[in-house]
Structure formats: C-alpha cells, structure tokens
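Try this one yourself first.
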C-alpha cells in the first residue's frame, strides 16, 4: 500500500470518528434542558437552537389518503391554459427588444417594438373607406329620390343601395383593423408587441433589426416570444394499460426529480387520456403540481408515484414513528417549555403497517389536530427519552 493511500484512509477514519462524536454530543445536549427545571421522564425540552441544528420539523395528525402507490416515469410540461405565444400581426422590422429571457412580466407589458408600414396602410384604408362611404351614401340617397319620383329604374336604385351597404361594411372592417393595429398610438408606424398573460419569458426569437412576417400578410409568421406561468405546472406520467383501472381522477401524486433528490413535490391527477400510445402501450396521466418557487422546469424528467385504491384514515408520515425496543413511539409537540424551547412528549402508538406508501395509519395513541415530529424523530429517540 502506498503512503498516499494510507494517508487517505487515516483521514477518512478520523473524519468518521469526528462525525460520530459530534452526533453523540448533539444527542446529549438535546436531552439537557437549559433552565433549572427538570422535564418529566416521558418528555424532552429542546431549545429553538437545538431544534434548528437537529432539523426537527412537525406535522399535524389528521385524516389522509393511504393505500398502495403506483410508480412510473413522467415529464414536466407547461400548463396549456397558462402559456401565451406571441406573434406579430404586422410585417416590419424589430427596432427595440424590451423583454429579456427569464423576465417576469405582467399582462400588457411591452415586449418589443416593430417599425411597420402596415400601420400607415391601415390608416389610409380607413380614410379611403370614409370617402367611398360618403360617395355611396350620396348616390344611394339620389337614386332613392329619383326612384320614388318614378324618374329612375328600380335596377339603378337597387345597385346604389347595394354599393352603399358594401361601403359601410368596408368602413367597419377598415376601422376594426386600424384599431387593432394602432394599439391606441395614432400617427405612428411603430407597433408594440405586448404580453398576453402574466408569466415568465421562456423563449425569445426577436432580435434587433430582424424583419418579421405578419400574421395578417398571408405568410408564415414566426413566434417571437413565449410567455408561460410556471405555477402550477403539469406532469405527464406514462401509465401502462394493466395499471389504468387503478388510477382515479383526484388521486394524490408525489414526484421527485434528479435535480432535487431530497425533495418531494405533491399534486393530484386531473386528467387521464382516453387513448393509448400505440408504440409504448401506455396512457398519459396528467397531474397538476404547485411550483411557486419555479423549481420545476418544463421538459424535466420525473419519477411519479400515484396513489391507487386509497382510503381516508388517521395517518402520519412513516418518519414520525420510531421503533424503540418492542414499542412504536412518536413525539408530540406539547408547546413551549420552561427553557424557552419546545416540549416533546414521548407517546407509545399503534400503527397499521399493512398499508404501503409514505403514510402509516395510526390505530391508537394520537388524536386529530395534534402535532408530531415528522423529521428528526430518530434523533429524539436516541436521546433516551
């Protein structure tokens, strides 16, 4: 064995012993109250500092859906109802880009400005339609008077009436188009692209000086911006044909992604596809997941667990229950302690271990509304309480 290898092993062994010593000291300090008062034999008094250092967290005891879980793969996607695709209705040149990638925008926020001759054309069309309408109206009124005086043919009167109606329709069309394109900015050839919804700018294809084709020009208009609200997001899971009978609308869902291996996201099934994929023999199951901190991003792959054959029972997370000897115990938060921290009561509980999943039903020892330790219970059990 080389000298370097021996040094590495010595350092590793020393680090491991130091870790054990630190953990032991933490458990001993957790068992000691800061004040002169002494906790009862079945209680621990923990200071706020010790709670933070040990990572202790609590959860409320209540009725929850427990049962079997179906695990499959899935993909994070935009919610279709919360995505806006921005195209230019006019042909022109981009003169200013006002929004950057990743920027959060509100509905109506300017994204880019285009210089377009279509705006001047739209105004001219309105003026031309006004002139045509005035001429058609005069001709109609004149032919009407002559027809009523039996001085003109009915055919001429009907032709004048038809031209008058066409002129009115053209005036309405030209005015609506001009109003749509002008964006309230008369006398200018600048068109402002605006965000259609609240969200983040996830795609930007508009760059300074680029010429773009307008949607109203009859060509193929490129998408210049994509605005998406990333809270919530969809997760599309693939469920095999044999498992479909066990999946229900509203079933609880948990998922993990490789980017955050220690974190679990929760949601519910809100749609099940009515057809199978011919190649994979799977059906898409859509789940809606809250994403307030924008952690989940579209196109992420996820491991999805869907609750199947669930039923409501009084339950707590499995991490809340610890085996001590031949008993199962949980630690109940009893409120402030005399040392300025929290009191945790050691409670013997009964559980139904036949149910699969992350939740375990409680048969005795706990009441609805009580708060039990869900993270760090194993540390409290090692303190000797």
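Now uncover the answer:
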């Amino acid at each position: 064995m080389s000298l370097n290898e021996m040094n590495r092993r010595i350092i590793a062994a020393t680090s491991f012993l130091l870790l054990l010593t630190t953990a032991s000291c933490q458990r001993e300090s957790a068992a000691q109250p800061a004040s002169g008062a002494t906790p009862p034999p079945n209680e621990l008094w923990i200071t706020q500092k010790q709670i933070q250092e040990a990572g202790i967290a609590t959860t409320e005891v209540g009725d929850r859906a427990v049962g079997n879980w179906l695990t499959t793969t899935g993909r994070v996607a935009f919610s279709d109802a919360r995505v806006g695709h921005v195209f230019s209705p006019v042909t022109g040149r981009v003169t200013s880009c006002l929004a950057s990638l990743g920027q959060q925008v509100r509905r109506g926020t300017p994204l880019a400005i285009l210089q377009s001759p279509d705006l001047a054309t739209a105004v001219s069309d309105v003026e031309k339609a006004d002139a045509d309408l005035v001429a058609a109206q005069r001709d109609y009124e004149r032919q009407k008077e002559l027809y009523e005086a039996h001085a003109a043919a009915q055919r001429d009167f009907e032709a004048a009436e038809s031209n008058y109606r066409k002129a009115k329709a053209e005036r309405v069309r030209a005015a609506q188009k001009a109003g749509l394109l002008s964006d309230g900015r008369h006398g200018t050839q600048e068109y402002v692209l605006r965000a259609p919804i609240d969200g983040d700018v996830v795609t930007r294809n508009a760059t300074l000086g680029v010429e773009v084709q307008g949607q109203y020009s009859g060509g193929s208009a490129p998408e210049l911006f994509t605005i998406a609200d990333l809270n919530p997001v969809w997760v599309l899971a693939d469920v095999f044909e044999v498992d479909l009978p066990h999946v229900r609308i509203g079933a609880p869902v948990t998922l993990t992604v490789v980017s955050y291996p220690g974190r679990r996201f929760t949601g519910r099934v809100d749609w099940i596809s009515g057809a199978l994929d011919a190649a994979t023999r799977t059906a898409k199951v859509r789940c809606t997941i809250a994403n307030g901190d924008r952690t989940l991003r579209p196109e992420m792959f996820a491991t999805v667990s869907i609750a199947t054959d669930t039923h409501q029972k009084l339950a707590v997370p499995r991490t809340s229950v610890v085996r001590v000897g031949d008993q199962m115990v949980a630690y109940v938060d009893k409120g402030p302690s005399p040392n300025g921290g929290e009191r945790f009561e050691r409670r013997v509980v009964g559980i139904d271990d036949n149910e699969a999943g992350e939740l375990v039903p409680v048969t005795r020892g706990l009441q609805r509304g009580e708060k039990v330790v869900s993270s760090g219970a194993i540390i409290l059990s090692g303190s000797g309480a």
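Discussion: Residues 69-81+230-310 form a domain with the Elongation Factor Tu (Ef-tu); domain 3 fold (CATH 2.40.30.170). The radius of gyration is 35 Å.
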